[in-house]
Amino acid sequence: MTTPPLPEQKPNRAEFFAASLFWSLGTLIVNILPIVFQALHQGRGLSDERLGALGTAFVLGSGITSASGPFWVLRLNARWVTIGSLLVAAFGLLGVAFVADIAGQTAWWFLIGLASASMATPSFTLIGYAANPLRAYSLAFFASLVIAALASYGLPLIVLPRFGDQGVLVTIAVLFAVATPLALALSDMRRRATAAQAAPTNTSRRLAQPSGVRLALAAPLIAAVAGAIFTGVFMGAIYNFADAIAAAVGIQADAIGPIVAISLIGALAGSILPWIVGDRIDATVMIGISTAIVVLMYPVMLMSHSATAFGAAFVIHAVFGTLGYTYYLGVVRHLDMTDRIYIVFPAFQALGVAAGTSSAGFLLAHFTPVALFDLSAALAIASWFILVVAQRLSARLRRDASTLAAEAVLQH
Question: Residue ranges of the domains in the chain?
Fold first, then answer.
């Protein structure tokens, strides 16, 4: 499952390293947001309601930038956008730390959200131009999890006790500022877009027809919806509510921390497996296996009466949930013949996680975990069938394109 680009489109090692780093930094704050907000809660006494408003502002800023990515990312120079975004994000974090009062923090967090997505989007786009996007995203996602894990352990254990919430914010700002020179390794995305548009492909004649345009747009969009549903269920509905679900089934609260920590190691394994497996197994099959195992872990977690059984099921759920998430990154890119639709996939996923988190909170507050697991299982299975629809639409487009290409050869 590869999307072969032009040779000059392939990012070299230095460029891929830089893109992986900046995608990781662009998603760092959202990955460690609970730790940052915990520091603000302890240091400034912000209420849960106030922290929720700040989180909404951050997600809104990030979402606006990500969702609009297809309209701007291929028109601007990636290296200067990334450098500017790093500096703006660092400035915003310093503003939160030293300038903003409690009432004025909302605007600062909105600015940080805009800047974070602005550094992540060009790098996410660039990784999609690799010779094998699936393996490239797998390796880059693994790197992002490693950086997030190091920050998750280092900030609360080393920085927060000594320097408080200001130290946490300044540390992240310094990290952004120090990484700025590495953005010079990124290439100009405008040249890649121009080269891709000028390149002759077997699908060019088919895409020129209205039906071809519809299929070319529909396949990656439908796959992105499937991926958003899967991610919303796996991460938003189940992973984000590990403590509430465990408490509801009778697991002691002090066992949750170690279980979540081990599940992070499992997530690292799940993110790197697609890089190891590559194209030897069809991506739809791998996502189907991941979905099936994730769903099978639901009754195990629900009926477990010991921390060991619950923990084992939760860790397996993390491994295969992350595996499926990573494969969706590759699938959406593979199906996108426009080289633009896949750019918006992170925004789809963020929307899915937000919807999953909101729905899970409502179900756990008004019903039992059984209702949450039943709905999650139905949605996870439905997401795989939606993916199959997207794959068939893409196969139809490619088949028609091959027919047209063969007819063109015969005519000449």
Answer: 12-196, 202-411
Q: What's the Rg (C-alpha) of the chain?
A: 22
Q: Flag the least confident range among 120-124, 223-227, 324-328, 349-353.
A: 349-353
Distance CA 50, CA 284 (A): 42
**Residue tagged 């996108």 (tokens):** 336
Residue 202: band (very low, low, confident or very high) from pLDDT cuts 50, 70, 90: very low
CB < 8 Å & 24+ apart, contacts of 366-373: 368/248, 369/245, 369/248, 369/249, 369/302, 370/302, 372/237, 372/238, 372/241, 372/245, 373/298, 373/299, 373/301, 373/302
**What pLDDT score does 59 carry?**
84
For 202-411, CATH gives 1.20.1250.20
Under a CB-based contact definition with an 8 Å cutoff, are residues 155 and 32 in contact?
Answer: yes
Task: Write the CB contacts of 99 (distance below 8 Å, at least 6 apart in sequence).
Answer: 108
CATH placement of domain 12-196? 1.20.1250.20
Question: For tokens 């999307």, what's the residue?
Answer: 3
Closest to 120 measured CA to CA, from 227, 14, 17, 20? 20
* Burial letters 86-95, b for 16+ CB under 10 A, else e: bbbbbbbbbb
**Sequence letter at residue 18:** A
Would you give the DSSP letter of residue 279?
A: T
The per-residue DSSP string of 293-344 comes to: HHHHHHHHHHH--SHHHHHHHHHHHHHHHHHHHHHHHHHHHHH-SSSSGGGG
| Cα–Cα nearest to 58, from 92, 22, 97, 24 | 92
Q: How does DSSP classify residue 255? A: G
